[in-house]
Design brief:
heterodimer; A: mainly beta; Immunoglobulin-like; seven-stranded mixed β-sheet; 9 helices; B: 6 helices
Chain lengths: 668, 211
């Protein structure tokens, strides 16, 4: 009897258990399906947003689409990229200068009226102290400025002001200035200095130039943020190492409870330079804040703070405490009041820079978790901070806070979402403008260990797509990128209309050739110049003659005007791969040192007869001229006998056939 | 028998001598205006679609020019680029000699219509109709012949050898990876309208008498 009841109840329990787990698995399935739907972009459809990732020490910028998180393209900036021919033609080689890599950390979209205007994307190079400008009309790098004088470790960059008047930079590494001067690191405090730089951006062309600089003590400046609204005209940086240590920074730079944040009035600084208050250092006007009051203030923030982010209203400035488990929120209006009332720490200026009184300007320290780094805003009053150590994203409410909340700021911490793993930067579209938009947050994580299929010791990076539209965050998708993104920018696809072919009318290259009559090879002593035309599916000419010892210059014009008709020019065993987009002309020159016949061929697949698109570079011994060599006498008069007979040399050989010409045939 | 024939001829003569009333003359004038308007619009359009060209490539044939669709007529350049693979001669405006004097012919026809507006005789309408039909049929015929020429004089050294073909004059056909459609455009439709107007002009005055 007892056994029977026992059996029945066990059976009932088993049945109940099965049903309840059925329930759970079906909700899990539903959620899975929903997430898949949320990030799925079907074949033939397009993503809604561009995601411009910084490429870290790959030196490039990666472009992905949101919500699919698919990698769409790589924009080469600081490193050669044979896939698009970057770094092989004269122009891009010159732009790269002496370096073949860079360390891209913080991309910044250009802004007008504190809103992305879709013109340019600026990216910094932490390693070689440069800044590059990418034009969003053609997604190409058009300018690399630098190395910036007097500035080393271009990490606290590139941060644009609300109308892209300036691009602001602060140094991670202090060195003896001007650069090139040598001093012993043991004399770090005395001999080394940091620098804040303002690069002027030309409003029409986007051309950057170094405008002025502000000398700082040898703190390690970390991240920056520009103000807007009430904080318009101001910029903020975090630093670590106000201990001014030069070795074992790991511990020596983490001793003090608080480090100085720099509060810079760049408008006042520009004014001061105009008034002649700057000194020249290496050709750049440099302001000494000790001598020019009103341009810089320090605010102690705990502890070795990392990210600093101004909220869309311009009133609240969030500092990620890195080595303390909280985000410090500063009230800019109080800060301005303190400055105006000269409410500084008594006797506490640092090398002439006034230090603000912490309690007068800080609104509160929000207990977000361990290892707070960066904060982004959704424009609806909420902030999202990355926790490196907790491996979380924490959502919290911005001020104004009620008295109750102020008493226990745990109350403003609303949600925590695990990230995989150890998020560095995160990005919400428009968070660094006055108008954030969209429902997405992308977390860029520093460790992808175990999340993806095993690819050996060198690991890719993981990014995660999070839906922040609801009260609670929802992780929807995960993607992997090349090493290694830092910050990113999100732009709505509909905001820009890039071109997909360079219109012929815009090609002002004097060496461009558009018809076969103007192509050819000319010789002037040891200078040989070839003007080549590339079209489906042939090069004209498909033979270039030169000799050992010649300086050979080749200009190739892709005369196509249709999207995706890209031609490459790969020269065998001479380390050349130029790639020309439709309508583009590119040039390279080499000194010929080895004899032989070197084929050149179209490297970028262009047409059904792509394989047949080739030519020969004949490098004869010095003084030897091959019997088949043909040179034109100047800017291409006599046409070269072309290899392909199906190329009508002048006008149409077919139409004047007897029948056609005679018929006075009007069309109807 | 002979009497019936001469009666017929006399009736025919009287018919052809009928005057054109005001409505008819207005319709003829409208026909002339329609022809002039037609010249500003394409007469024919050839549209090519392939997977790699999902938006399609267009060729617009006017009475006086041949133009490709797309930015700056880029489609014509594209079509010629594609045609060279099969050895078809490039379509170049300069080769269409007839386009040099087509506008002249249209002008002449317009003049003849205006002449009929002034002279106002049924016979004029018959003349116009006859000339128009001849002109129209001849045009279509030679257009077809041009198409035949282009499709049959393929360069023997072309990379891809295909059987000579005649691009379609009217309708849709699949050629390799392209679906080609060929249809009259607004210009041709207006020209048809104008011939209908001419016929209507005759119809409205069919019972007119002198008196």
């Amino acid at each position: 009897m007892k056994t029977k009841t026992q059996l029945v109840s066990v059976a009932l329990l088993a049945v109940a258990a099965t049903f309840s787990s059925c329930d759970k698995s079906s909700t899990a399935k539903n959620e899975r399906a929903q997430n898949a739907q949320a990030s799925y972009v079907a074949p033939g459809e397009k993503d809604e947003y561009y995601l411009f990732y910084s490429g870290g020490h790959s030196g490039q910028v990666f472009v992905a689409g949101i919500p699919s998180m698919r990698h769409i393209t790589t924009i080469p900036v600081y490193a050669p990229y044979p896939a698009t021919g970057y770094g092989f033609d004269d122009e891009s080689r010159k732009m790269l200068g002496d370096y073949t890599w860079g360390d891209v950390h913080h991309p910044a979209l250009s802004q007008t009226g504190s809103k992305y205007d879709g013109r340019w994307l600026f990216v910094n190079d932490n390693a070689n102290n440069r800044v590059a400008r990418i034009d969003l009309r053609d997604f190409k790098t058009h300018q690399i400025l630098g190395p910036i004088p007097n500035s080393s470790g271009n990490h606290g960059s590139s941060f644009v002001t609300e109308n892209t008047e300036y691009l602001l930079v602060a140094t991670r590494f202090s060195v003896p200035l001007p650069k090139g001067r040598v001093a012993d690191p043991n004399d770090y405090e005395k001999e080394f200095n940091g620098m804040v730089s303002a690069l002027k951006v030309d409003p029409k062309s986007g051309e950057m130039s170094v405008a002025f600089q502000i000398l700082t003590p040898p703190f390690d400046w970390d991240l920056g943020s520009t103000g807007k609204g009430p904080s318009s005209g101001w910029a903020f940086w975090t630093s670590y190492n106000s201990e001014m240590a030069h070795d074992v920074l790991e511990s020596n730079a983490s001793q003090k409870d608080r480090d100085y944040s720099a509060i810079v009035n760049w408008k006042a600084a520009a004014q001061a330079v105009a008034e002649g208050k700057a000194q020249d250092m290496g050709g750049v006007p440099v302001l000494d804040p000790a001598k020019v009051p009103g341009i810089m203030y320090f605010l102690p923030i705990g502890k070795s703070p990392h990210g600093v982010d101004t909220d869309p209203s311009g009133k609240w400035i969030s500092y990620g405490g890195k080595l303390q488990p909280s985000v410090t929120v500063v009230n800019f209006e109080k800060l301005l009041q303190a400055i105006n009332k000269k409410d500084f720490v008594h006797g506490g200026d640092v090398r002439g820079v006034p230090v603000l009184e912490y309690n007068d300007v800080v609104e509160g320290e929000v207990p977000v978790g361990l290892g707070p780094l960066h904060t982004q805003f959704d424009g609806r009053g909420f902030a999202y901070t990355s926790m490196f150590i907790d491996s979380n994203i924490t959502k919290w409410k911005l001020p104004p806070w009620t008295d109750e909340e102020k008493k226990d700021l745990n109350k403003v911490v609303l949600d925590k979402m695990p990230a995989h793993y150890s998020t560095g930067h995160l990005v919400v579209a428009g968070s660094d403008t006055a108008h954030p938009y969209g429902k997405w947050c992308v977390a860029m994580n520093k460790l992808s260990a175990g999340r993806h299929i095993n690819v050996g010791p060198s690991q890719p990076e993981s990014s995660q797509l999070i839906d922040i539209s609801g009260d609670k965050m929802k992780m929807v998708a995960e993607a992997y990128t090349e090493p290694e993104p830092h910050f990113a920018q999100i732009l709505k696809v509909s905001e820009i209309q890039p071109i997909e072919a360079y219109p012929k009318a815009e090609n002002t290259d004097p060496n461009a050739v558009w018809d076969k009559e103007h192509t050819g090879v000319t010789r002037n002593g040891t200078q040989v110049e070839a003007k080549v035309l590339a079209v489906r599916s042939r090069f004209v000419p498909d033979r270039i003659d030169a000799q050992v010892g010649d300086d050979l210059t080749i200009h190739v014009t892709n005369v196509e005007q249709t999207r995706d008709m890209i031609h490459g020019f790969g020269l065998i065993e001479n380390n050349i791969n130029m790639v020309m987009d439709p309508g583009e002309t590119k040039t390279f020159h080499i000194k010929l040192t080895k004899p032989g016949v070197f084929p050149y061929y179209c490297t970028n697949f262009c047409s059904a007869l792509h394989q047949e698109m080739q030519g020969y570079l004949v490098v004869a011994n010095t003084g030897q001229v091959m019997p088949g060599a043909v040179y034109t006498s100047g800017a291409g008069q006599a046409p070269i006998p072309s290899a392909g007979a199906n190329v009508p040399a002048t006008s149409n050989p077919v139409a004047p056939a007897p029948g056609a010409a005679a018929t006075p045939s009007p069309q109807r | 028998m002979k009497k019936k024939l001469s009666d017929l001829l006399r009736r025919e003569f009287r018919f052809l001598a009928r005057p054109l009333n005001l409505w008819s003359r207005l319709l003829l004038f409208l026909a002339a205006a329609t022809i002039v308007t037609a010249l500003f619009f394409p007469l024919w359009r050839m549209h090519l679609v392939a997977p790699q060209y999902s938006d399609g490539l267009d060729l617009f044939i006017y009475s006086y020019k041949i133009v490709g669709g797309g930015l700056n007529g880029q489609h014509l350049v594209e079509i010629n680029n594609l045609n060279h693979y099969i050895g078809m001669a490039p379509i170049v405006q300069a080769d269409f000699l007839e386009m040099r004097w087509m506008p002249f012919v249209f002008g002449l026809i317009t003049l003849l219509i205006l002449r009929s507006v002034v002279f106002g005789q049924m016979g004029n309408v018959v003349d116009l109709f006859a000339v128009y039909c001849y002109f129209g049929l001849f045009s279509i015929g030679s257009f077809w012949y041009r198409l035949y020429q282009y499709g049959h004089n393929l360069d023997p050294r072309a990379p891809m050898t295909i059987k000579p073909f005649t691009p379609l004059l009217l309708g849709t056909k699949q050629i390799a990876n392209f679906r080609e459609s060929s249809y009259p455009e607004l210009g041709a439709i207006l020209l048809c309208v104008s011939v209908v107007l001419i016929l209507l002009a005759g119809w409205f005055s069919r019972k007119e008498t002198f008196a």
